Amino acid sequence: MTEKTVEQFTEELASSEPVPGGGGAAALAGALALALGSMTCALAQERRKGMDETRKAEAEELHHKCENLSRSMLSLVDRDSEVFAPLRAALRMPHTTPEEKAAREREMEQRYEEAAAVPLQILSEAERGLRILEKAARFGSRFLLSDIGTAAVLLRASAESAQMIIRTNTMCMKNRSRADCIDFEADELMSVIKAEAGMLCRQVQEDLGL
Q1: Measuring CA to CA, which residue among 107, 68, 69, 70 is closest to residue 85?
Q2: Domain range list for the chain
Q3: Looking at residue 142, what DSSP letter applies?
Q4: What's the start-to-end Cα distance of the chain, in Å?
Q5: Any idea of the CA torsion for 195, 200, 203, 207, to the nearest 10 degrees?
Q6: What is the CATH number assigned to the segment(s) 20-84+95-207?
Q7: Among candidates 128, 187, 129, which has minimal Cα distance to 160?
Q8: For the whole model, what pTM was predicted?
Q9: Could you report the per-residue pLDDT of 71-114, keeping only the tens digit for each?
Q10: How many CA atoms lie within 13 A of 148 on its CB side?
């Protein structure tokens, strides 16, 4: 998926094909957010004049962290599509006899959990990304405030989408104990993400006089 042009990806997203879908879109939003963070740090490195060695090193480190997280998010675009095929195959398994029903149920349980794992990783990456963005914002000029704000909004949207996708899959799982554990982890991450994104967005809005 990630080798396609933006136009191709958008056209496929708009088609009747089930993939790419919400998970891929959520991961792409996260990747774009972190790319904006990377840009902020890259521009800070270009304006190195007047920066001490400690701040130069910090800007460079944050730049690399944003780049790596952005690539990780992009890889989840493809991973989200990959986990759908086995789930669709499980849903199409025969389920006439008791043996067939049991085999199908076991397979579906595994596939639903796998499908929830990808958006859970999106949530985790988004939380890490917001902590990095908060630090990267200190290096941005007033002309980059809106880019940092956009990155925070995109990461929060990415995470909120991922949480909904997780719940879509866990609500279908028979092992409620395992499903509840996944939901709890997602809810905990989302709570932190909302607080961090909200704080960063409010700071940007105040600085812009909004």
Answers
A1: 107
A2: 20-84+95-207
A3: G
A4: 38
A5: -160
A6: 1.20.120.680
A7: 187
A8: 0.90
A9: 999 999 999 989 988 999 999 999 999 999 999 999 999 999 99
A10: 31
